[in-house]
Structures are given as C-alpha cells and as structure tokens.
Design a protein that fits this description.
Length: about 190
C-alpha cells in the first residue's frame, strides 16, 4: 500500500486552519489523490485554539478516526509555543512549519527539539499575508510554506486549484484571489529550513 500522509494544522479561530486543510485537500484531490480534511474544535469562537487535519494518499483512505501521528505539522500561531506540544506523535522524519519571524535555529530550543530530530521550518506568514492580502491571515501563506518544506503537492497544482476555489468565493474581488495566490508563492520562496 502507498504511504498515507497526515497533516495537523494548529491555529486560532479566524486564522484559517480549517480553510487551509480544506484547500490543501481539494488541491490534492484535483491532483488525483484520495483525501480527508476535518477540523477539531474546542470552543467555537474567534481566537480559540483549533486544530484541523488532512490525510492524503494514492490509495483509498479507510481510516475514519483522529490523526494521532502526523508526519507534518503546520503552526499558524507561534504564541502557542510552550503551551501546546507540536511534536506530539510526530515521527523523527517529520516536519514542523511555524508562522514566526524567528529562524528555525531560534525556534528549535523553544520547541525542545534536538538538532538531529524533526525538521523545522519557519516563515513570516503574518507579514506576507499583511502585504499581499491586507490582513494578517496566515492560512494561504502557510500552505505554500508547507508545500515547499514537504513536497506533499506540486506548487502549480496547489496554485491552480486554490485559484479556482477562491474565484468562486470571491467572484467580485479579484484582488483577494491574486493576493492569496501571491501569498502562497511568496511563502513557498521565503520559508527557511535547517
């Protein structure tokens, strides 16, 4: 059986963790993959911690349970560092991508990671989204950073499918569509890894 990839997204209500998981899943489906995307909520309010998940596989996915051991983790809000264990369940060959202005070397000790364990990437998704979209909404830039750090999807496939989805939602606001696509591209180019 082909490998099934699992992704866990951490964010706060209103940052787009659920939307990012859905857009990633839809882009993977458009690329011919089998997918799942689902959120996990605590209190449903703006700013509350949320987690969303993806499963992506070349084969049908028969699991219908929570994600316990994600290979990839995307953290949309670095203020969680120290309160949430982002490494929980992540294997040694896993990847964590964090929205922060700090470098991977600066973040590694804050996460309690040894130098030979999980690969760590950082990107200023808030800054990128502020410049491209006009608001600090880190979800689409984090998608670009995650694709670069993991190779889970082809960048052009992600951009094309995301463009189609956003054009339906923001039919009369092409600047929002273009801003989000530019945010994905910039994060893909600017993500730092060690």
């Amino acid at each position: 059986m082909a490998e099934m990839l699992e992704i866990r997204w951490h964010g706060r209500g209103g940052q787009g963790a659920k939307t990012a998981a859905l857009l990633m899943a839809e882009a993977a489906a458009a690329a011919g993959k089998h997918i799942q995307a689902f959120p996990e909520y605590g209190p449903e309010r703006m700013g509350a911690p949320v987690a969303s998940y993806n499963r992506i596989s070349d084969e049908p996915i028969r699991l219908h349970c929570g994600v316990e051991s994600p290979r990839y983790v995307a953290v949309l809000d670095a203020t969680f560092v120290g309160t949430i264990d982002f490494t929980a369940g992540v294997p040694d060959d896993g990847v964590i991508v964090i929205n922060t202005t700090e470098s991977p070397a600066e973040m590694r000790p804050k996460l309690g990671l040894k130098s030979d364990s999980i690969r760590l990437y950082t990107v200023d998704a808030n800054g990128i989204s502020q410049e491209t979209i006009g608001r600090a909404i880190p979800n689409t830039p984090m998608m670009g950073a995650l694709v670069k750090a993991t190779g889970v999807l082809d960048l052009e496939e992600l951009l094309e499918d995301t463009k189609q989805k956003l054009e339906k939602k923001f039919r009369n606001k092409p600047e929002i569509v273009e801003g989000n696509l530019e945010a994905i591209r910039r994060a893909y180019e600017e993500v730092q890894g060690e």
